[in-house]
Write a structure and sequence with these properties.
This protein has nine helices and four strands. The chain has helices spanning about 5-15, 30-35, 40-55, 70-95, 100-115, 120-135, 140-155, 165-180, 185-200, and strands at about 55-60, 65, 160, 205. The strands form two sheets. It has a two-stranded antiparallel ribbon. The protein is elongated. This is GntR family transcriptional regulator. It comes from Streptomyces flavotricini.
């Protein structure tokens, strides 16, 4: 059975994000084909996709390698997310379905309950599902794809500290859902912007950044 390239792509991406393949590491087709038990054809296609996403770069004489993002690129990623997440929330207020609302409210109930009990180990995954569902509710395929890609890259580049007051963080999630449910696009946008700004402050650069960058010291860190 031929394993599709998108499945190989997902596996390689997950190994890059989790640190199995470190920044700068070579990614030979032979090694990857052996690791995932596939032929070199889907590996080649997967590497092309990952290069377009910014996880992989091709070097002369070395071939495909895990990218080494600069500090500026990492900072730009967070800045872009600060712009796109509020946009997704505003669109969700106009386009969400009852199904989206049901899932969002269920996640908020679970998150608030876990936060009150101090069950922090569940909150990270619940938060991820919340923001993924909010993006899906925007009804914008291009925006959804961008935010999904960004979520993978942020998880790769940054370690995220747990919020000091998780109950407050989940209260913000609840307020966003209330605005989306009422169809109040501007309030959904404003609340999400404040929430995203606060969350950005908890991100700490994790990956080894490139030493060959020209503008490493410029821009916000």
């Amino acid at each position: 059975m031929r394993i599709p390239a998108h499945a190989v792509c997902t596996a390689i991406r997950e190994d890059i994000v989790s640190g199995v393949f470190e920044p700068g590491a070579r990614l030979t087709e032979e090694l990857l084909a052996r690791r995932y038990g596939v032929s070199r054809v889907p590996v080649r296609e997967a590497l092309r996709t990952l290069e377009s996403e910014g996880f992989v770069t091709t070097r002369r004489h070395a071939g495909a390698c895990v990218a080494e993002p600069t500090e500026q690129e990492a900072a730009d990623l967070l800045e872009l997310r600060l712009l796109l997440e509020p946009l997704a929330a505003a669109r969700a207020a106009r386009r969400r379905t009852e199904g989206h609302l049901k899932v969002l409210r269920g996640l908020v109930r679970l998150g608030q309950e876990r936060a009150r009990r101090g069950q922090g180990e569940d909150l990270r995954s619940l938060g991820g599902w919340f923001h993924e569902t909010l993006a899906q509710a925007s009804g914008s395929p291009g925006l959804i794809a961008l935010l999904t890609q960004m979520r993978h890259k942020v998880a790769w580049m940054y370690a995220v500290e747990a919020p000091a007051r998780p109950v407050d963080s989940w209260a913000e999630h609840g307020a966003i859902v209330d605005a989306v449910a009422r169809g109040d696009a501007e309030r959904a946008r404003a609340l999400t912007a404040v929430h995203a700004e606060r969350a950005a402050g908890a991100h700490r650069l994790r990956v080894r950044t490139s030493q060959h960058a020209v503008n490493m010291s410029s821009g916000p860190h």
